[in-house]
Model the fold of this input.
Amino acid sequence: MSKKVGIVGFGHLGQYLFSEIKKRNDLELVFVWNRSAAALIGHVPEELILHDLNDFKNRCADLIIEVAHPTITQEYGPLFLQHADYMIGSPTALADTRLETSLRSAATKHGLYITQGAFWGGEDIRKMADRGTLQALRVTMKKHPSCFLLNGEIELLNKTVTDTPVTLYEGSVGGLCPLAPNNVNTMAAAALAAHNLGFEKVQGVLVSDPSLTNWHIVEVEVWGPGDIEADKTFYCKTVRRNPAALGAVTGSATYVSFLSSVLGAHGKGPGVHLC
Done:
């Protein structure tokens, strides 16, 4: 039996998922919602367009996928979980500890799935966190200035970038998420995997680099067992180059990773699942 899927959001990632899900026999689209319904006209069959998100229950989805904005999880996350499994594509929402607690409490009948997206090595980091051997984690994201959607002072700082890279932010991931809710989902996934550190202890660095016209770069640095003060500890650094066009918030390789998460969100039952 095919799994019934609803998509919330129809940006580049939502469009990709719509196209890929239509090709499959194991998944069935039952609705697509977008804040601007006009963006769906001519692209999505009328019978699949959900004009009012509050009517999602009528479509009887098994899995609801958010690829829109963190505010969707804030407004609808616990309600979605009363009726279906829920996959969060914007985990920056979970920097709000009260919201995370509310979602975990709501995931008693259905599963809450959190995608890792462009975050590399998440399963290994989660295992270290489970054992309490993860001591520190830093994620550095570097993108072209046109690839950022920002708020506050770092938005103004990004507008001043000309020929040389500028570090827009360095500090806790929890402090960065509200400033770049669409750009640092990778960091949010890192903070969730590194649960013994969390959003306030996992460090994030955001760099605006005008030379990156073809790539997004994500660097993950991990400190594990040993004496970290004496620099005698386990250390691992990975560098991921994700192809991305100018102005693209999400790199192209992340799309395939997200689809894999969707296909893996099956049969895990209630609770919270990183995928």
